[in-house]
Amino acid sequence: MTIKYPDGRYYQGNTDTNQSNTKLHHRDNVIFGGRGMSLEETINDSNVYYRSQDRAVIYKKPTPIRIVKVDYPKRSKATIKEAYFQQASTTDYNGVYRGYYLDFEAKETTNKASFPLKNFHQHQVDHFKRCLAQQGICFTIMRFSSLERYFVTPASLLIDYWQLQETNRKSIPLKVIETQGYEIQAGFHPALDYLKAVDQLIQHSTQTNSKGGKI
Amino acid sequence: MTIKYPDGRYYQGNTDTNQSNTKLHHRDNVIFGGRGMSLEETINDSNVYYRSQDRAVIYKKPTPIRIVKVDYPKRSKATIKEAYFQQASTTDYNGVYRGYYLDFEAKETTNKASFPLKNFHQHQVDHFKRCLAQQGICFTIMRFSSLERYFVTPASLLIDYWQLQETNRKSIPLKVIETQGYEIQAGFHPALDYLKAVDQLIQHSTQTNSKGGKI
Predict the structure, then answer these.
(1) Cα separation of B82 and B67, whole Å?
(2) pLDDT band at A181, cuts 50/70/90?
(3) Backbone region of residue A37 per phi and psi (left: phi > 0; alpha: psi in -120 to 50; beta: other values)
(4) Segment B46-90, tens digit of pLDDT
């Protein structure tokens, strides 16, 4: 099944979007447990694992859909007969981890030297700004698929480059991401153990936060 | 338009579910700004207001839907032709406020002396337990519609009564909610200014938290 979102992304089928029906996959001889899975599936798998271990409670939000027509057949469940995809106004993932609110978006590129900003949208940048103002831990998970490298990149870096975009460059250099981001180390279980990189981001955020807030 | 969820609740139409198309309503001579609106609309309105004032970033999650068939008409947007409502595995609302992760469910009753537990589901109770273990601020917004009284009730109280349910009573007495919960005071703007009651819950939670965690 191939379904396109309004912004041209492809719908990934029945993954973890707020459902509890995602199964843990078991594979051998993998570097990242998620090899062969889409980035979204890999993260959803990891989130199921984190919940099962009481490490964190993080979900992908369901795709917002505008429902126009529903049938109620007798002795059968309601069937949506006409509906449309809607543009989300937030990022895809959020949840709670060690008392922190986490909020993130996951994207990938086949580029080897930089991450194109066209992967992101204005509403995501705006949402990150609002959540940062509330002391949320905001980031993107960036996958360089040709390199099989993954980074937890602070949302503040995306915001900085987003503002440069009109006058200047349209992507974030890998060298900058290597310096400002936190590389996710390869492992077996869960598929993508991104919380270790998030720990580093939290440590850095709480050290540099000078607003006198809680973090 | 009347649409039933799998659990029998009614779908409220195109409200704030992760969309930015909710308008602020202006009314005169109201006690709670939301009078005449459904509880969900009232909360969504308040959330739009809180975001506009940079007070908090809280959204209702979209209803999870399993998509089976989509049409792609030429020169027109994708139309979902067959889809089904799915049971959510979380609560309806979450977000970030002053560095805290908030997670809640909103329910109402016409009862005058107690709040029936049948308004809640096992998956919501389980989700609250997981979020509390991560030091999230978890609660329900309970509306006693006949009394026009609203409470922010700690999830821990719901969990306690949920466990009593099989052997004992099937509802939480209003007298207990008055003592253990935080009543939302009437105001004009936003429609339901529940964050003031949440402030009290946070203060109480941080005072009584003995786990040595962040809160």
Answers:
(1) 6
(2) very high
(3) beta
(4) 999 999 999 999 999 999 999 999 999 887 889 999 999 998 999
Q: How far apart are CA B60 and CA A18, in angstroms?
A: 13
List the structure tokens of B139: 């609660």
Q: What percent of chain B has pLDDT over 70?
A: 80
CB pairs under 8 A between A and B: 168
Check CB contact of A95 with chain B, cutoff 8 Å: yes
**CA gap B81, B201 in Å, rounded:** 44
Residues of B in contact with A85 (CB under 8 A): 77-78, 80
A3 with B70: CB under 8 angstroms? yes
Does A207 reach chain B within 8 Å, measured CB to CB? no
Quick one: pLDDT at residue B77? Answer: 86
Q: How far apart are CA A179 and CA A176, in angstroms?
A: 5
Q: Which residue has the higher pLDDT, A167 or B132?
A: B132
Which fold, A3-208? Trna Endonuclease; Chain: A, domain 1 (3.40.1350)
Residue B122 phi, psi dihedral angles, 5° rounding: -55, -40
* Percent of chain A at pLDDT exceeding 70: 80
Parse chain B into domains and list their residue ranges: 16-63+88-208
DSSP state for residue B56 in the 8-state scheme: -
From B56, B87, B135, residue closest to A134, measured CB to CB? B56
- For chain A, say whether B3 makes contact (Cβ under 8 Å): yes
* A92 inside 8 A of chain B by CB: no
Assign A74 to helix, strand or coil.
coil
Nearest chain A CA: its distance from B8 CA (Å): 11
Alpha carbon separation from A38 to A115, A118, B18 (Å, rounded): 18, 19, 24
Minimum-distance CB partner of B96 among A61, A79, A131 = A131
- The architecture in CATH of the region B16-63+88-208 reads 3-Layer(aba) Sandwich (3.40)
Q: Residue type at B198?
A: V
Q: Closest chain B residue to A17 measured between Cα atoms?
A: B64
CA-closest candidate to residue A197, choices A48, A56, A91, A51:
A56
Tell me if B59 and A86 make a contact (CB, 8 A cut-off).
Answer: no
Residue A29 has pLDDT above 60, yes or no: no
Distances (CA, A) of B138 to A18, A113, A142, A145, A207: 18, 43, 31, 38, 27
Neighbouring C-beta atoms of residue A188, cutoff 10 Å: 14
A190 interfacial to chain B (CB closer than 8 Å) = no
